[in-house]
């Protein structure tokens, strides 16, 4: 996914800020949401992604959040422990990126259905002619039906 490559590049550009111990975690999370996540989710309303891309997006999000929130030191043993997914979800209470994509896609579908313009006609009308051989491609309309 090219958006994840752009997100990685964006993360590397602000990595010094996100790894600094003097900056609070709230500012780091706001930086992640306003800079990195907006780059990754640009144009997500029109994506027709499969489960594989959703998994990649979740992995990217968890990796960046683990780097932002940093590992914790156990008070009893003194060992560093990595944050588990449940702990990470508790610390980052905002909705994950897959949920945001689904919400934006549904909002965009409402705009397309309400407009009645060219985009709606392309979505509703069925093309004539033969279908190509093989499995049908996953379309944007299929993603909307799954989200509903």
Report on this model:
Helix 1 (2-13) packs antiparallel against helix 3 and helix 3 (25-40) packs antiparallel against helix 4 (51-69). This protein has 148 residues and is an all-alpha fold. The radius of gyration is 20 Å and the shape is elongated. The protein is built from 8 helices and 2 strands, in the order ααααββαααα. The protein has one domain. The protein has helices at 2-13, 15-19, 25-40, 51-69, 85-91, 97-115, 118-124, 140-147; strands spanning 72-73, 80-81.
What descriptors fit this protein?
63% helix; 2 strands; 148 residues; 8 helices; elongated; mainly alpha
Please give a quick description of this structure.
By secondary structure, the chain is mainly α. The chain is 63% helix and 3% strand. The protein has one domain (2-126, 137-147).
- The N- to C-terminal Cα distance equals 24 Å
Low-confidence stretches: none
Structural class: mainly alpha
Helix share bin: 55-70%
Strand content: under 5%
Q: How confident is the prediction overall: mean pLDDT?
A: 82
SSE order in H/E notation?
Answer: HHHHEEHHHH
The number of helical runs is 8
Rg calc:
20 Å
Number of domains: 1
- Principal-axes geometry comes out as elongated
SSE layout:
Elements: H1 2-13, H2 15-19, H3 25-40, H4 51-69, E1 72-73, E2 80-81, H5 85-91, H6 97-115, H7 118-124, H8 140-147
Antiparallel strand pairs: 1-2
Helix pairs in contact: 1-3, 3-4
């Amino acid at each position: 996914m090219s958006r994840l490559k752009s997100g990685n590049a964006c993360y590397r550009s602000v990595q010094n800020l996100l790894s600094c111990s003097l900056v609070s975690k709230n500012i780091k999370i706001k930086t992640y949401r306003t800079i990195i996540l907006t780059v990754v989710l640009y144009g997500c309303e029109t994506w027709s992604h499969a489960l594989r891309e959703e998994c990649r997006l979740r992995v990217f999000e968890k990796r960046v959040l683990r780097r932002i929130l940093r590992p914790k030191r156990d008070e009893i043993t003194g060992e560093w422990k990595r944050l588990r997914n449940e702990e990470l979800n508790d610390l980052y209470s905002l909705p994950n990126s897959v949920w945001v994509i689904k919400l934006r896609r549904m909002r965009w579908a409402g705009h397309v259905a309400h407009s009645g313009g060219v985009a709606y006609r392309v979505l509703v009308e069925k093309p004539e002619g033969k279908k190509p051989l093989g499995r049908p491609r996953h379309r944007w309309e299929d993603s909307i039906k799954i989200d509903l």
